[in-house]
């Protein structure tokens, strides 16, 4: 017999099938390991609820005052919502000072307390755990994530379905990882993961706090209450840095602030004379016809940022029937081109006006262009497919760009090329964080548009 979702459940409960045995039937099957991790997490949540109710009843409303103690300085300004998922488990289970007493200890000493085997195992796991920075090395969607402690270098596979959907390889989290019965799960995690660039800052400062540069940190050092408070404050500070930093200043390859500029001229002489004068401009290439207009590209030799480039495009000049438009990507280039135009074409053109497009508009246009490259949405909500020739051309262009990038001077690396940065112990971590972000960005592309980046690690000797 086939039972409909809204039919009475055959078990006789009186409930609809979808809300009784049908609900269990609709849930996806999970492995015994994930099921055990889910049961332990449920027990951990129930245990936290019991500990908080006990603390409020026996210790009063001030039981968490250590979090805002001015002498500690760590949380003098109060906690953010993102802090709570890790601070609350720490407050309940881990030492608040150098004494061995915790909220959990006080609760267990209460004669009325009853502790289940799973609850006891979880409390033992908290006693063995520590607060640290963990990097996601791989993700198994629907199962969990593989984590590496960047300080102790311990590894754990965390059975956590939600994390497997919310975290990406090379994300970093501040977390307490618990292990019970050979199963690991998150006992607490700061609500804001960090991408590689900011994770590298947090890891560098954490090592400084631990007085190490490259050596492993002993877990016992990270169990210190003072170190835990310092890591909480450090992570919150880096999160603030990430969320409050000003938008990047876009620059062209000359280092000028990016400003799309269009100078408009009216023709005062014959169009043929204008064409001949434009052809005499330094760097003017052979004109091309484009939609009934004559277009000149103006270049200069070499490139200030990309040493492998033969030249740099500095302007695009579009000549229509009665108008001349000079397009550049910075005010400095626009001013230089205006001086050249008015010198070579004196009496032939008359300046009318300048239009400028600000950075915010440029970013919006770039995002729109990226969306079109990845596939424009159709009316039915699906993306319009891109033909294979276009995909191949885009991948080839991006691969060439990344090959050239290895030899270019990179401002984020202090002006070093990636190859030079790989040989510098001081700059290498910044290079590695850049490569990790490249991998993250590449994963966001549809599979057909992704390029392979594994070669970069071997090419730069970072394996």
Task: Explain the overall architecture.
With 463 residues, this protein is an alpha+beta fold. 41% of the residues lie in helices and 17% in strands. The chain has a 6-stranded antiparallel β-sheet. Strands 3-2-1-4-5 form a 5-stranded antiparallel β-sheet. A hairpin with a 5-residue loop joins strand 2 and strand 3 (155-159). Helix 7 runs antiparallel to helix 9 and helix 7 runs antiparallel to helix 15. The longest helix has 28 residues, at 32-59. It is elongated, with a radius of gyration of 31 Å. The model is unreliable at 66-77 and 373-382 (pLDDT under 50).
Low-confidence stretches: 66-77, 373-382
**Helical residues, percent:** 40-55%
- Spatial arrangement of strands, main beta sheet: 7-8-9-10-6-11
Secondary structure category: alpha+beta
Blueprint (SSEs and pairs):
Elements: H1 21-26, H2 32-59, H3 84-93, H4 103-109, H5 117-128, E1 131-140, E2 144-149, E3 155-159, H6 161-166, E4 172-180, E5 183-189, H7 196-209, H8 219-222, H9 225-244, E6 260-267, H10 271-279, E7 288-290, E8 293-301, E9 311-319, E10 323-328, H11 331-344, E11 349-357, H12 359-374, H13 388-405, H14 418-422, H15 428-443, H16 454-459
Antiparallel strand pairs: 1-2, 1-4, 2-3, 4-5, 6-10, 6-11, 7-8, 8-9, 9-10
Helix pairs in contact: 7-9, 7-15
């Amino acid at each position: 017999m086939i039972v409909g979702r809204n039919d009475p459940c055959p078990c006789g409960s009186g409930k609809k099938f979808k809300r009784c045995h049908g609900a269990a039937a609709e849930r996806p099957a999970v492995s015994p390991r994930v099921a055990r991790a889910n049961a332990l997490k449920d027990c951990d949540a129930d245990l936290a609820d019991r500990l908080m109710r006990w603390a409020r009843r026996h210790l009063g409303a001030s039981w968490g005052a250590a979090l805002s103690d001015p002498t500690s300085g760590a949380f003098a300004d109060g906690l953010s919502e993102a802090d709570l998922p890790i601070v609350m488990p720490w407050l309940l289970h881990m030492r608040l000072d150098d004494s061995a007493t915790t909220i959990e200890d006080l609760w267990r000493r209460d004669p009325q307390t009853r502790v289940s085997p799973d609850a006891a195992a979880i409390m033992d796991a908290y006693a063995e755990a520590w607060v640290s920075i963990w990097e996601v090395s791989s993700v198994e969607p629907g199962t969990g994530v593989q984590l590496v402690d960047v300080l102790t270098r311990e590894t754990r596979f965390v059975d956590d379905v939600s994390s497997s959907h919310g975290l990406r390889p090379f994300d970093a989290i501040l977390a307490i990882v618990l292990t019970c019965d050979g199963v690991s799960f998150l006992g607490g995690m700061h609500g804001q993961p960090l991408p590689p660039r900011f994770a590298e800052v947090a890891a560098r400062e954490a090592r400084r706090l631990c007085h190490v540069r490259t050596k492993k940190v002993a877990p016992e050092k990270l169990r210190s209450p003072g170190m835990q408070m310092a890591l909480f404050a450090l992570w919150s500070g880096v999160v603030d840095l990430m969320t409050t930093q000003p938008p990047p200043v876009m620059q062209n390859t000359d280092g000028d602030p990016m400003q799309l500029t269009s100078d408009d001229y009216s023709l005062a002489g014959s169009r043929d004379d204008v064409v001949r004068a434009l052809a005499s401009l330094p760097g003017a290439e052979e004109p091309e016809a484009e939609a009934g207009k004559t277009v000149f590209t103006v270049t200069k030799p070499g490139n200030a940022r990309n040493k492998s480039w033969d030249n740099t495009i500095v302007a695009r000049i579009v000549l229509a029937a009665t108008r001349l438009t000079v397009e550049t990507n910075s005010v400095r280039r626009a001013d230089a081109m205006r001086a050249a135009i008015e010198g070579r074409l004196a009496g032939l053109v008359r300046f009318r006006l300048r239009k400028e497009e600000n950075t915010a508009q440029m970013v919006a246009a770039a995002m729109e262009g990226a969306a079109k490259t990845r596939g424009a949405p159709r009316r039915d909500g699906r993306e319009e497919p891109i033909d294979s020739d276009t995909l191949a051309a885009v991948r080839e262009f991006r691969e060439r760009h990344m090959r050239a990038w290895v030899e270019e001077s990179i401002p984020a690396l202090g002006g070093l090329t990636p190859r030079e940065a790989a040989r510098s112990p001081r700059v290498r971590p910044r290079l590695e964080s850049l490569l990790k972000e490249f991998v993250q960005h590449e994963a966001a592309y549809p599979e057909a548009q992704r390029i392979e980046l594994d070669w970069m690690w071997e090419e730069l000797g970072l394996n």
